[in-house]
Specification:
eleven-stranded antiparallel sheet, two-stranded antiparallel sheet, 360 residues, 22% strand
């Protein structure tokens, strides 16, 4: 019987170092395999993209290295759930001992198909790992989360990503040197790709939360949690065991921990707190003023007089500085980090509101 290990994975990227000779052999092999096939092999990002096994969840990216060291590398981008045969568009890979063994076997078969000197899967380097969770909400709640994130999460060390079209209304993405955080309407994405089946429940909507761990992020997390990252086949199950902690840790690097409330509900919580009356008055005024802005930049707020202090006071009450607008028929939403790693006490506090937007 397989032992359940934590955390779901959407995508992972493995790197295989190649000699220059192997690079040219692979390049010829890819073009021969792709002959007559549409969008199977083409230039991409300064290298070559090979999608021959894309239906099985595997795409290859071939790059020649520049500089004094002459060599090359092959990035193998894998959707593990698809590679193991799951076809549902929302499917995620959950590590169990059995699934891990099956994944290793499937990757071994891919390696053996490549025209290179024989390699073991242990010779691959884990270059990126996308932790992922789906949360069922109503369509209104999914849209509201996206709006709140886009209004209130701005950080100089995190680059904002946008599509410049309607997809920006259905997604939120920020990226830094170590991590990338994405929150989006999964059902909208599935609809746009024509992946909604007849079996899909019409009223079922998913908020997908992804935390991509890049190479530097993986290295940092290995040190922080004392994990051995020398062999990725061992490192992957180990990092998954700490997955909930890691997922939450990465999210809190960008997202405030406080829950989302309407302004009236936030005022009520502040009024019922143990703060002195004058502190309550100043905090309510502060929250009212900052939410009159179209966007809320916490770094700018920290630089104004008493800004840091007021934000600390809101954090003490578990209130997010960004409030839900009155026209939305919802007075409270859990914070994204608490969805990943819920606190029973905090969840009960939110459920005590008259119109709690719950996960069902």
């Amino acid at each position: 019987m397989s032992r359940k290990i934590h955390t779901k994975i959407h995508t992972m990227e493995l790197r295989l170092m190649l000699s220059l000779k192997e690079y040219h052999i692979c390049e010829d092999f890819f073009y021969r395999k792709a002959k007559g096939l549409r969008k199977c092999c083409y230039p991409w990002g300064g290298g070559l993209c090979f999608r021959y096994w894309s239906l099985s969840g595997v795409n290859l990216y071939l790059h020649e290295m520049s500089g004094s060291y002459m060599g090359a590398y092959l990035d193998i981008r894998v959707n593990p759930s698809k590679l193991l045969g799951r076809k549902e568009p929302q499917a995620l890979y959950e590590i169990t001992e059995e699934n891990h063994r099956l994944l290793m076997d499937a990757l071994e078969k891919i390696l053996k198909k490549l025209p290179i000197e024989e390699r073991t899967i242990q010779s691959l380097i884990l270059n990126r790992l996308d932790l992922c969770e789906d949360f069922p909400f109503s369509w209104t709640e999914v849209c509201l989360y996206i709006q709140l994130l886009n209004k209130g999460v701005h950080h100089t060390k995190w680059k904002e990503h946008s599509f410049g079209d309607e997809r920006d209304n259905h997604s939120f993405r920020r990226e830094c040197k170590r991590y990338q955080i994405t929150v989006y309407d999964k059902v909208y994405q599935m609809q746009k790709k024509g992946l909604i089946t007849e079996e899909w429940e019409e009223e079922k909507y998913l908020l997908r939360v992804e935390a991509a761990l890049k190479t530097e992020g993986l290295r940092h997390l290995a040190q922080k949690y004392n994990l051995d990252d020398r062999d990725w086949t061992v490192f992957l199950p180990e990092i998954s065991k700490e997955g909930e902690k890691i997922f939450r840790y990465v999210l809190l690097k960008l997202l405030p921990e406080g829950h989302y409330y309407s302004l009236s509900k936030a005022r009520e919580i502040i009024s019922e707190s143990n703060f002195y009356q004058n502190k309550k008055k100043n905090l309510i005024e502060f929250l009212t003023v900052i939410n009159q802005k179209r966007t809320i930049n916490l770094q700018e707020i920290r630089s104004i007089k008493n800004g840091k202090k007021r934000l600390r006071q809101l954090a003490e009450l578990q209130i997010n500085p960004v409030t839900i607008v009155t026209r939305e028929q919802c007075v409270a939403l859990q914070s994204i980090p608490s969805l990943i790693s819920p606190s029973p006490v905090l969840a009960d506090e939110i459920r005590g509101t008259s119109m709690y937007c719950s996960i069902e």
